[in-house]
Write a structure and sequence with these properties.
Blueprint lengths: L10 E4 L3 H5 L1 H6 L5 E4 L6 H9 L7 E2 L9 E4 L8 H8 L3 E3 L1 H9 L4 E5 L4 H14 L4 E5 L15 E5 L2 H4 L8 E4 L7 H4 L2 H9 L14 E5 L13 E3 L7 H19 L7 H10 L9 E6 L2 E5 L6 H10 L5 E6 L8 H7 L7 E6 L5 H7 L4 E7 L2 H11 L1
Parallel strand pairs: 1-2, 1-4, 2-3, 4-5, 6-8, 6-9, 7-8, 9-10, 10-11, 14-15, 15-16
Antiparallel strand pairs: 12-13
Length: about 400
């Protein structure tokens, strides 16, 4: 596929985010025909100005879903792919994907590494980029972390490392020549409509559901990542040392991906053990991803704010010694099970964890946590600032 294939096409943009705004100039360069925008909420002045600079004025913006067939639908995460009205619009479109999905389709699989997972995506992408540097391969990082892809030429000769969320996977057209799945647990079930759809959307980066021409030449997942049959046997399982924590898992996946890319590009392939040690020694500290931010009065403060699902919380709790501890959690209910967290807490001493719950303390998740023997009590807090103050007082 090329941008020129969209010449004259009628395009509907669902949502006005950074990813969507980045595709406007390429669409005009194609050049496409009419562009319409669907956005139910208010549009910030600077974003509205960007739309107008590309010829999209108030008359082309609506809060209602279009009726009748259109050529191209490009979707933002605020419009769940499996929502009935979105499904209906996309069903009749010639192309229905995200702006990132369109970029990947035009680029094609070559020299592209795609990464997804319920936890560990950003760290693994950063480690892969560091590894490509070390073997002398020029690279670009796009997606959830890095640059919106449409700010880069899809045909760049650099190796592209793309971090993809499950919402990208929902209508992915093309994947990379190397695909990495960091962890497959539960997340965003409210968005996807259930665990089966979530898993199916995640697994599309492995080429599952895309057809043979789009199957990556290398597909990596951890040996202990549970993949539904019959998909498990077709993935190259990456072994990690017994007892390795999440960081060790991410390093192992990055090493496998970089070694595979080096072999494809005909550059020297580094020794796996030495390369893993090198990457582990320079492990990236990313904001909001599991990192120690302070130690005061013998108390260690850990920031894992972007690890916002039960599997991520379980991984964080598993990284620290069991109690005494304070956990700040809460937020939007993604319809996921708390079982991963409760399983970790089974090994904690009785009444060793204090939970500060961001939100309504009567939330069923707060109640379920509070019933576990390892939890001393659950206190509702109104803001992160309040939670930090309360945590400081408790510790």
């Amino acid at each position: 596929m090329e941008l020129a294939d969209l010449a004259g096409a009628e395009v509907v943009l669902l949502g006005v985010g950074i990813e969507t705004l980045s595709v406007l100039a390429p669409l005009r360069a194609a050049p496409v025909g009419r562009i319409r925008v669907v956005e139910a909420g208010p549009i910030a002045d600077e974003r509205r100005a960007t739309l107008e600079s590309h010829g999209i004025d108030t008359d082309a913006i609506t809060g209602e879903m279009p009726t009748g067939p259109v050529d191209v639908v490009l979707r933002s995460p605020g419009f769940p792919r499996h929502r009935v009205d979105v499904e209906a619009l996309c069903a009749d479109a010639r192309i229905a994907t995200t702006p990132t999905g369109l970029w990947l389709a035009i680029r094609g699989p070559a020299r592209t590494i795609v990464v997804t997972g319920t936890k560990g995506k950003s760290s693994t992408v950063t480690l892969i980029a560091q590894g490509l540097d070390r073997v002398g391969l020029t690279h670009e990082v796009v997606g959830n972390i890095g640059t919106p892809p449409w700010r880069i030429d899809p045909h760049t000769e650099a190796v592209v490392v793309a971090e993809l969320s499950s919402y990208h996977g929902a209508d992915l057209i093309s994947t990379g020549e190397i695909a990495v799945l960091t962890l497959l647990a539960e997340d965003h079930l409210d968005w996807h409509g259930g665990i089966a759809a979530y898993r199916r959307d995640k697994l599309r980066i492995l080429g599952i559901g895309l057809g043979d021409p789009n199957t990556p030449s290398h597909r990596f997942a951890l040996a202990d990542t549970a993949l539904p049959d019959p998909h498990g046997p077709i993935v190259e399982r990456v072994e990690v040392a017994a007892g390795a924590d999440l960081r060790g898992h991410n390093v192992a996946l990055a090493v496998a991906a970089v070694r595979a890319e080096a072999a494809l590009r005909d550059v020297p392939v580094p020794d796996a053990g030495e390369f893993a040690a090198t990457l582990a020694a320079d492990y990236p500290e990313l904001p909001g991803r599991f990192r120690v931010v302070s130690t005061r009065r013998g108390v260690t403060w850990i920031d894992d704010a972007l690890g916002s699902n039960p599997s991520a919380t379980a991984a964080a709790l598993g990284h620290v010694a069991p109690g005494p501890a304070v956990l700040i959690c809460g937020g939007h209910d993604r319809s996921t099970s708390l079982d991963p967290v409760l399983t970790v807490l089974d090994a904690w001493p009785e009444a060793s964890l204090t939970v500060l719950w961001l939100g309504d303390g009567s939330d069923h998740r707060a109640t379920e946590l509070g019933a576990h023997r390892a939890v001393a009590h659950v206190d509702a807090v109104g803001s992160m600032e309040d939670a930090v103050r309360r945590a400081d007082a408790v510790t």
